[in-house]
Amino acid sequence: MSNIDALKKEIVETVQAANDIASLEEVRVSALGKKGKVTGLMQTLGQLSPEQRKEMGQALNRLKDEITAEIETRAALLKSAALNERLQKEKVDITLSPRPQGKGTIHPISQTIEEMIVIFAEMGFSVAEGPEIEDDFHNFTALNFPPEHPARQMHDTFYLPDAPDKKGLEARRLLRTHTSTVQVHVMQEQKPPIRVIIPGRTFRSDYDMTHTPMFHQIEGLLIDKSAHMGHLKGCLIEFCRKFFEVDDLPTRFRPSFFPFTEPSAEMDIGCSREGGELKIGAGKDWLEILGCGMVHPNVLKNCGIDPNEYQGFAFGMGVERVAMLKYGIPDLRTFFESDLRWLKHYGFGPLEQPNPALS
Ligand code: PHE
User: Same domain for 60 and 32?
Assistant: First the structure.
């Protein structure tokens, strides 16, 4: 074996023996560095005859290339082994339960919905739910919105791509703009007498101090043979007095319009704004809190209920709005920012019962 082969064998062995990048670098310097073995041999070329120099020069260059390649291969191997080891070491066991970092709280929206359900449950209402992705029929047509009616535009609807298996208005899918859609589902599925409340998320393309693209409503629907406007008023007055914990809370009903109720009304509650502070109860001012009315005969018909036999009332109210009023929360948008400090301040403990009227 020539000297060069012996040297190659020796260097390759030390390359293979290097167990980390630092010792591999040492091997490289000792072979190819300024004072390295191969470099040393290169420097002796000048002493050789021209033929020998040519032959030896080529051999040494080859040796240099081979050693460089060996070192690169070894370096890649060591780097990936080091990475694997690090990944193993830094692995996070996501099946471990987290250490509790303070108490969680119940979001004011959940709390408010819970309080509303309790009050209506006492009056004999049960809870119904429906889908958030809807079709045009349940959001508009069944609720007596004529096809090109401007009220459709007023809802700032989020539309989804049309359903592929249907055509025209029937194919149109959307995020429900109000919980009234569930009135339709309930009437299609249940026979009167019906007495339900429907809490849920609703969506409209709107964003400012008092509007967020997602918000919550609670809907009420009562259908039987004799329900009238007096029942509607009694039910809502009772609800508001209990919810706001003000026994003599003044209320008033103003005529309004919704395509799905006739007659329609909006309900206001009394308040005072003296000294810039809003107080629910007797005062000079009024605050609008919900929409309501007698279910339109066309809606009953559209849902398969005979309007000559049955009648009833419906109402809908914004959950954030009444939560803001009851708990003095000034900005609607903060409900959905998930700021832990806000949640800690306005959130409720799991067994907290902030409404004594309910306990
Ligand atoms: N759906 C109406 C709205 O979102 C509220 C409403 C519900 C009005 C039921 C009357 C009856 O504004």
Answer: yes
Max Cα–Cα distance, the chain, nearest Å: 122
Q: Which range (98-102, 130-134, 306-310) has the least confidence? A: 98-102
Cα distances (angstroms) measured from residue 179 to each of 58, 141, 230 = 85, 14, 23
Query: Are 145 and 17 part of one and the same domain?
Result: no
Residue span of the structural domain in which 51 resides: 2-90
List pLDDT tens digits, range 188-210: 999 999 999 999 999 999 888 88
User: What is the domain count for the chain?
Assistant: 2
By the 8 A CB rule, do 269 and 263 touch? Answer: no
Residues 116 and 230 in one domain: yes
Ligand 1 within 6 A of 302 CB?
no
* Atom 9 of ligand 1, nearest CA residue: 315
Q: Distance from the CA of 323 to the center of ligand 1, in angstroms?
A: 18
Q: Which two tokens stand for residue 204?
A: 């409209």
Q: Stretch 307-335: mean pLDDT, rounded?
A: 94
Nearest CA to ligand 1 atom 4: 178
At 39-84, the pLDDT tens digits run 888 888 888 888 888 988 898 999 999 999 999 999 999 999 999 9
CA of 75 to the centre of ligand 1 (A): 70
Atom of ligand 1 nearest to the CA of 317: 5
292 C-beta closer than 6 A to ligand 1: yes
Task: Using the atom order of ligand 1, give the atom closest to the CA of residue 220.
Answer: 9
Strand order in the sheet with 133-135: 133-135, 173-175, 159-160
Question: 57 C-alpha vs ligand 1 centroid, how far in Å?
Answer: 93
Q: Classify residue 199 as exposed, middle or buried by CB count within 10 Å of its CB (0-12, 13-18, 19+).
A: buried
Is the confidence at residue 359, as pLDDT, over 70?
A: no
Q: Check pocket membership of 314 for ligand 1, CB cut-off 6 A.
A: yes
Distance 263 CA to ligand 1 centre (A): 13
Does ligand 1 come within 6 angstroms of the Cβ of 130? no
- Same domain (yes/no): 67, 177: no
pLDDT at 1: 45
Rounded Cα distance, 214 and 159, in Å: 14
Mark whether 180 and 317 lie in a shared domain. yes
Least confident window among 28-32, 113-117, 128-132, 221-225: 28-32
Statement to judge: residues 114 and 77 lie in one domain: no
238 C-alpha to ligand 1 centroid (Å): 19
